[in-house]
C-alpha cells in the first residue's frame, strides 16, 4: 500500500520538522496553504508555531470553514502545541478574539507552563504512542506549551506530565481521528507519535474504502 | 536548504534523568523553530505591541527607540526601561523579545529576570564591549545575534546563540545590506558543502570558527539554528524577497511604525511572508498601504555610523 498523502498546514511554524518526521514515517507530504491543497490530502498536521498568527492567517485567507468542514467529514488531523490549541473546542488565555478550528472536545490553556525560561524537556510514558512499559520513554520537548485543562467523555488521554509542579497535567490526547500533543515530537529523531498518526490515517483510509465498498 | 533539520555534533545530548530540564540547547533552538515563517516586529509601546499581535506577528521586539530614531537622535542607546518591557509583557500573549547591548551581560541578566522570551544581543544598541560578546551558554533564556557572513554566524553560535539573523542596515528602509548578508551566508554554506573533507580545516581557520561546527555545516548544508533576516525591510515585497533568498522568517524594525498605516502594513507583511513565493498574493497585499517609511540609502551613511559593522 502506498504511503498516505498528508498535508502540513504551512501558514507559519515548524513545517519542515513535521514534514521530515512524516516522511520518515512513510507518508507522502505536501504543504497546505490553499483550498485546493486542503482538498487533496487524506490527513493534516497543524504544526507548532504561534497560534494567534495561524488564527489571523486562517481568517484572512478564509480557511477556517473549509477546515472545519473537512474535520466534520472525518479528516484525520494531528496538532502539536499551537496545533493542539487550534484543535481545541475551548481555549483559556487566548489573545483577544482568538478563534479555533475545534473538533477535540477539550479545554486547552495557552502558555500554561509559563514563558520561554520555563520551557523544558522531559521523558513521558505513553503506552498508546508506543512508549509503554518495556519501551524507551517518549522524550518530550515543551516550548511555551499549552496543557489540557479538561476533556470531554469521548477523549482518550495519551500522556500526562510525570514530575515537577505540573505533574499530572494532560499533554497528549486522541478523539476518533483527531490527535494532539502539547509537546513537539517533530523536534528530534524519535518518530513514534508521527508513526501513530500515519497509522491512524491508514486505518481511516481502510475504513472509508470498506464503507464505500459496502455502499455499492 | 536541506530537509535535514537535526544536526550532528551540536545536537544536544539526551538528558539522562526524567526530571524536567529547562534552558537546554534544544529548548532554546526549538523556540526559534516555532517562529519560522513569521514576522517579528519592533515596538516601543504596549499599544504598538497590541497592533503587532492583532496583525499576526509571531513575536514583538521591545525597545526604547526604533533604529530609525536611534539613527536620527544619536547618543548612547541601551536596554529598554523594565517598566516598558513589563507593560508589553502584560499586554500581549505572544513572545516578547528585547535587546541587550553587545557584550552587556548584566543587561541580559536583567532581561532574563523580567521574563522576556528571547534576547537580541544587538548592534542597533551601542556596544558595551568591543572585544567580547555575551557568553550566552550561561543563560536560561535564548539569544538571537546578528551576522553579516558565515564566520560571524558560527562564532555567535559557538558563544551560545540559538538563532541567527542578518544584520542588514537597521533604520534605513534600505534592504540592500540584508540582501548581501543573506546571499553571503547562503553562498559560504554552499561553498563549504562542496569542499573535500581535508580542506575543511583550512576553511575553519579562514572562517575563524571551530572545526566541529564548520564540519557540521558542511555535512548538513545548513546552520544548526534558524536564520531570520533583519535590517531595512519596509515592504511586503522586501519580506518575500528575503524569504526567497532563504530566510526562515523576518524581523521588521522601523518599517512598520514609521510608515503611514502601521496596522495595514504589518498585516500585509505577515501575509507576504507566508505566501512569499506567490506574486499574486504579494501584489494583492501591497495595494493601498499608504506611505512606506522614508528611508536612507546605506551609501549616504558615513561608515562610522553604520550599525552592521558593529560586532565581529
Automatic annotation (TrEMBL), chain A:
<keyword id="KW-0456">Lyase</keyword>
<comment type="subunit">
    <text>In the presence of PdxS, forms a dodecamer of heterodimers. Only shows activity in the heterodimer.</text>
</comment>
<dbReference type="GO" id="GO:0036381">
    <property type="term" value="F:pyridoxal 5'-phosphate synthase (glutamine hydrolysing) activity"/>
</dbReference>
<feature type="active site" description="Charge relay system">
    <location>
        <position position="184"/>
    </location>
</feature>
<keyword id="KW-0378">Hydrolase</keyword>
<dbReference type="InterPro" id="IPR029062">
    <property type="entry name" value="Class_I_gatase-like"/>
</dbReference>
<feature type="active site" description="Nucleophile">
    <location>
        <position position="81"/>
    </location>
</feature>
<keyword id="KW-0663">Pyridoxal phosphate</keyword>
<comment type="function">
    <text>Catalyzes the hydrolysis of glutamine to glutamate and ammonia as part of the biosynthesis of pyridoxal 5'-phosphate. The resulting ammonia molecule is channeled to the active site of PdxS.</text>
</comment>
<dbReference type="InterPro" id="IPR021196">
    <property type="entry name" value="PdxT/SNO_CS"/>
</dbReference>
<feature type="binding site">
    <location>
        <position position="110"/>
    </location>
    <ligand>
        <name>L-glutamine</name>
    </ligand>
</feature>
<keyword id="KW-0315">Glutamine amidotransferase</keyword>
<dbReference type="GO" id="GO:0004359">
    <property type="term" value="F:glutaminase activity"/>
</dbReference>
<comment type="similarity">
    <text>Belongs to the glutaminase PdxT/SNO family.</text>
</comment>
<feature type="binding site">
    <location>
        <begin position="49"/>
        <end position="51"/>
    </location>
    <ligand>
        <name>L-glutamine</name>
    </ligand>
</feature>
<feature type="binding site">
    <location>
        <begin position="143"/>
        <end position="144"/>
    </location>
    <ligand>
        <name>L-glutamine</name>
    </ligand>
</feature>
<feature type="active site" description="Charge relay system">
    <location>
        <position position="186"/>
    </location>
</feature>
<comment type="pathway">
    <text>Cofactor biosynthesis; pyridoxal 5'-phosphate biosynthesis.</text>
</comment>
<dbReference type="Pfam" id="PF01174">
    <property type="entry name" value="SNO"/>
</dbReference>
<dbReference type="InterPro" id="IPR002161">
    <property type="entry name" value="PdxT/SNO"/>
</dbReference>
<protein>
    <recommendedName>
        <fullName>Pyridoxal 5'-phosphate synthase subunit PdxT</fullName>
        <ecNumber>4.3.3.6</ecNumber>
        <ecNumber>3.5.1.2</ecNumber>
    </recommendedName>
</protein>
UniProtKB/TrEMBL annotation, chain B:
<feature type="binding site">
    <location>
        <begin position="253"/>
        <end position="254"/>
    </location>
    <ligand>
        <name>D-ribose 5-phosphate</name>
    </ligand>
</feature>
<comment type="similarity">
    <text>Belongs to the PdxS/SNZ family.</text>
</comment>
<dbReference type="InterPro" id="IPR033755">
    <property type="entry name" value="PdxS/SNZ_N"/>
</dbReference>
<protein>
    <recommendedName>
        <fullName>Pyridoxal 5'-phosphate synthase subunit PdxS</fullName>
        <ecNumber>4.3.3.6</ecNumber>
    </recommendedName>
</protein>
<feature type="active site" description="Schiff-base intermediate with D-ribose 5-phosphate">
    <location>
        <position position="99"/>
    </location>
</feature>
<comment type="subunit">
    <text>In the presence of PdxT, forms a dodecamer of heterodimers.</text>
</comment>
<feature type="binding site">
    <location>
        <position position="42"/>
    </location>
    <ligand>
        <name>D-ribose 5-phosphate</name>
    </ligand>
</feature>
<dbReference type="Pfam" id="PF01680">
    <property type="entry name" value="SOR_SNZ"/>
</dbReference>
<dbReference type="InterPro" id="IPR001852">
    <property type="entry name" value="PdxS/SNZ"/>
</dbReference>
<dbReference type="InterPro" id="IPR013785">
    <property type="entry name" value="Aldolase_TIM"/>
</dbReference>
<keyword id="KW-0456">Lyase</keyword>
<feature type="binding site">
    <location>
        <position position="232"/>
    </location>
    <ligand>
        <name>D-ribose 5-phosphate</name>
    </ligand>
</feature>
<comment type="function">
    <text>Catalyzes the formation of pyridoxal 5'-phosphate from ribose 5-phosphate (RBP), glyceraldehyde 3-phosphate (G3P) and ammonia. The ammonia is provided by the PdxT subunit. Can also use ribulose 5-phosphate and dihydroxyacetone phosphate as substrates, resulting from enzyme-catalyzed isomerization of RBP and G3P, respectively.</text>
</comment>
<keyword id="KW-0663">Pyridoxal phosphate</keyword>
<dbReference type="InterPro" id="IPR011060">
    <property type="entry name" value="RibuloseP-bd_barrel"/>
</dbReference>
<feature type="domain" description="PdxS/SNZ N-terminal">
    <location>
        <begin position="25"/>
        <end position="230"/>
    </location>
</feature>
<comment type="pathway">
    <text>Cofactor biosynthesis; pyridoxal 5'-phosphate biosynthesis.</text>
</comment>
<dbReference type="GO" id="GO:0016829">
    <property type="term" value="F:lyase activity"/>
</dbReference>
<keyword id="KW-0704">Schiff base</keyword>
<feature type="binding site">
    <location>
        <position position="183"/>
    </location>
    <ligand>
        <name>D-glyceraldehyde 3-phosphate</name>
    </ligand>
</feature>
<feature type="compositionally biased region" description="Polar residues">
    <location>
        <begin position="1"/>
        <end position="13"/>
    </location>
</feature>
<feature type="region of interest" description="Disordered">
    <location>
        <begin position="1"/>
        <end position="22"/>
    </location>
</feature>
Amino acid at each position: 500500500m502506498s504511503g498516505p498523502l498528508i498535508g502540513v498546514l504551512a501558514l507559519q511554524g515548524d513545517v519542515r520538522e513535521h514534514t521530515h518526521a512524516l516522511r520518515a514515517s512513510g507518508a507522502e507530504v505536501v504543504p497546505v496553504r490553499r483550498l485546493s491543497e486542503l482538498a487533496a490530502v487524506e490527513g493534516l498536521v497543524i504544526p507548532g508555531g504561534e497560534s494567534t498568527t495561524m488564527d489571523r492567517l486562517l481568517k484572512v485567507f478564509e480557511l477556517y470553514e473549509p477546515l472545519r468542514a473537512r474535520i466534520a467529514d472525518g479528516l484525520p488531523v494531528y496538532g502539536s502545541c499551537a496545533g493542539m490549541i487550534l484543535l481545541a473546542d475551548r481555549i483559556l488565555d487566548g489573545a483577544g478574539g482568538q478563534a479555533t478550528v475545534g473538533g477535540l472536545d477539550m479545554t486547552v490553556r495557552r502558555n500554561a507552563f509559563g514563558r520561554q525560561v520555563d520551557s523544558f524537556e522531559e521523558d513521558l510514558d505513553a503506552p498508546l504512542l508506543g512508549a509503554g512499559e518495556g519501551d524507551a520513554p517518549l522524550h518530550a520537548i515543551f516550548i511555551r506549551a499549552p496543557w489540557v485543562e479538561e476533556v470531554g467523555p469521548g477523549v482518550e488521554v495519551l500522556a500526562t506530565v510525570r514530575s515537577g509542579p505540573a505533574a499530572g497535567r494532560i499533554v497528549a490526547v486522541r478523539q476518533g481521528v483527531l490527535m494532539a500533543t502539547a509537546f513537539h515530537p517533530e523536534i528530534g529523531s524519535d518518530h513514534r507519535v508521527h508513526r501513530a498518526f500515519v497509522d491512524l490515517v491508514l486505518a481511516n483510509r481502510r475504513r472509508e474504502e470498506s464503507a464505500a465498498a459496502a455502499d455499492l | 536548504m536541506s530537509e535535514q533539520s537535526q544536526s550532528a555534533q551540536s545536537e544536544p545530548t539526551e538528558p539522562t534523568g526524567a526530571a524536567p530540564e529547562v534552558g537546554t540547547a534544544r529548548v532554546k533552538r526549538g523556540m526559534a523553530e516555532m517562529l519560522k515563517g513569521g514576522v517579528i516586529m519592533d515596538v516601543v509601546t504596549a499599544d504598538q505591541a497590541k497592533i503587532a499581535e492583532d496583525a499576526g506577528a509571531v513575536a514583538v521586539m521591545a525597545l526604547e527607540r526604533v533604529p530609525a530614531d536611534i539613527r536620527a537622535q544619536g547618543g548612547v542607546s541601551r536596554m529598554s526601561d523594565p517598566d516598558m518591557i513589563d507593560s508589553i509583557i502584560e499586554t500581549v500573549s505572544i513572545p516578547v523579545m528585547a535587546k541587550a547591548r553587545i557584550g552587556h551581560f548584566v543587561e541580559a541578566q536583567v532581561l532574563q529576570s523580567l521574563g522576556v522570551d528571547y534576547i537580541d544581543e544587538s548592534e542597533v544598541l551601542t556596544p558595551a564591549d568591543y572585544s567580547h560578546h555575551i557568553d550566552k551558554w550561561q543563560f536560561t533564556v535564548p539569544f538571537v545575534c546578528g551576522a553579516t557572513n558565515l564566520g560571524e554566524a558560527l562564532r555567535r553560535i559557538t558563544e551560545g546563540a540559538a538563532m541567527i539573523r542578518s544584520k542588514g542596515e537597521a533604520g534605513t528602509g534600505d534592504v540592500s545590506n540584508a540582501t548581501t548578508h543573506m546571499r553571503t551566508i547562503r553562498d559560504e554554506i554552499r561553498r563549504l558543502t562542496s569542499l573535500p573533507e581535508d580542506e575543511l580545516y583550512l576553511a575553519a581557520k579562514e572562517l575563524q570558527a571551530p572545526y566541529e561546527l564548520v564540519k557540521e555545516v558542511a555535512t548538513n548544508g545548513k546552520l544548526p539554528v534558524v536564520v531570520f533576516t533583519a535590517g531595512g525591510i519596509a515592504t511586503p515585497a522586501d519580506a518575500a524577497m528575503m524569504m526567497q533568498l532563504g530566510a526562515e522568517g523576518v524581523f521588521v524594525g522601523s518599517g512598520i511604525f514609521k510608515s503611514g498605516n502601521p496596522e495595514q502594513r504589518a498585516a500585509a507583511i505577515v501575509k507576504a511572508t507566508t505566501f512569499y513565493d506567490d506574486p499574486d498574493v504579494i501584489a494583492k497585499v501591497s495595494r493601498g498601504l499608504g506611505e512606506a517609511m522614508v528611508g536612507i540609502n546605506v551609501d549616504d551613511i558615513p561608515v562610522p555610523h553604520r550599525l552592521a559593522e558593529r560586532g565581529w
